[in-house]
Design a protein that fits this description.
141 residues, 7 helices, 70% helix, 2 domains, mainly alpha, single chain, 0% strand
Length: 141
């Protein structure tokens, strides 16, 4: 076939564009498939050094439920501590917890209502100050 100069350049542009599109799509699928289970920076600090990654070890992304549960238990303990031992008012306690845990006051109240079972358990057991100091020694009780 004989193409004019303009038609030939257009055909070349579209063909090159198509090849680039196919290459890009294949590469992005490759990257997604091979790097989905690796946290950011793994290639640089692990794979380049040891040359293999255990495929069985999958890192879950996002927030850890265990850590959130521990944070919530600590928050409830602090709420109980400020109310029982320091005898602060509700508003003062919520405001103080908001500053300590870097959460909004609305979030603090939601977490307290969601974890009422933990708070009821603390109320029934009425632990001494020593319990809190041993469980969370990094905080000032």
């Amino acid at each position: 076939m004989c193409y004019s100069g303009v038609a030939k350049k257009t055909l070349q542009k579209t063909f090159v564009g198509y090849l680039f599109y196919v290459y890009r799509a294949c590469y992005s699928n490759f990257v997604l498939q091979n790097h989905l289970s690796m946290p950011r920076g793994t290639v640089k600090i692990y794979k380049n050094i040891f040359n293999e990654i255990d495929p069985k070890r999958r890192v879950s992304r996002g927030r850890s439920r265990n850590l959130l549960m521990e944070r919530n238990k600590c928050l409830i303990a602090r709420y109980y501590f400020y109310g029982h031992f320091c005898q602060n008012g509700y508003g003062d306690i919520i405001e103080r917890l908001s500053h300590e845990f870097y959460l909004s006051t609305v979030t603090i109240t939601e977490l307290i209502t969601e974890n009422m079972d933990v708070l009821d358990k603390l109320k029934d057991e009425q632990p001494e100050l020593r319990f809190f100091k041993e469980r969370w020694p990094h905080l000032k009780w």
